[in-house]
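This is your field. Pick holes in the following sequence-structure pair:
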Amino acid sequence: MAPAPIANQWPEDGPRKLWSREIGDGFSTIVSDGRMLYTMYRGDDDQEVIAALDSATGETMWAHRYPAPFIEFEVEETHKETGKNRIAKQVTKFGTGPNSTPLLVNGRLFTLGFTGIMKCLEAASGKVLWSHDLYKDMGASYLRFGWATSPLAYGDTVIVLTGGKGQGVTAFKQATGDVAWQSSDLDASYSSPIVANVDGNDHLIAYMSNEIIGLDPTTGEVHWSLEHKNQYGTSIATPMWCPDNLLYFVNGGDEAGGRVVRLSAKDGKIAPEETWVNRKIRGGLSNPVRIGDYLYGPNSAGENAKLFTGFDLRTGEIAWQERGMPGPKCINAEGLLVVLDDDGNLYLVSADPEGIDVLGKTKLLESPAWTAPTLIGSRLYLRDRKTIMAIDLG
């Protein structure tokens, strides 16, 4: 069935709102099986909540709550007065999470919370099938801004960035939660892994804290590694697989910039070849989208940056930059862009290498609206830290 088209213009007062309701704190994106919506939020009493909502009404169908007190971490930094190492808590001034997007596959829902608690639930009922505490029980690397990496399905496994010696990346059996393989000594990041097909070979790509690596998704064998540092080790955006074996990735700070390498199979392994680096491309909290040979999305190195940019995938040349849309999160909807900015404004945009044309704008959410919206057919689901809603873009 072809996706329902969206309207190329909006009424003066914006698209029709179907429903809206309160929800707890968090930046977890909404996923759906068509009937139910799945997301996560922070509840009361140091709990996290995994919830399934009726897509037609927003009514809660089931909710699983579990304790998730914020982690206290011993920093190797001696206190002048006590002579003991300083104790630091996870940083919550940007939000208390959860930040990760659930994964829905084969009737199971895989989630990862702010403090590193990973769950596998029966999607229809919310029954817990298995659970791991990646930090406390598995020794995963500490993420002070809360876990944000999302699980990835491959074959009968689910793959996550865990971090730490010998376990930078971990593949679990989907059915049981048993470890299928672990690989790499690198620290995890806030980015999510992807699988690309390189010259007929499935290839796992993971942007760790300061390096991006390529692995065999069936065994975890590392094929290649490239340093791509940023100031705080806060790699956020997910690598993007593009035509002609081009891989785009960008850091979350302002040091390494945007970069494209071309991957190819050589002597039984996958290897990267440098194409371009542009340190003026600075990414943000979300990915750009690709239309043809151009990428459109955020160009933000700090909280106050408000640049929306278009650049050439082949060369890295910036075609244009526009101010006034902080942190644009874009969906390619049949050539038009549906864009949600950090201030909670929703736009309908036409974009090409010459610039952008705003076709519609409406204010729907409160700042910071960092969660990427979800478009299913002509229905758009979106949320901020207080509200979740559905609107009709048809």
Q: What stands out?
A: The longest strand covers residues 269-278. DSSP finds no helices and 34 strands in the chain. The chain has a mean pLDDT of 92. The two ends are 16 Å apart (CA to CA).
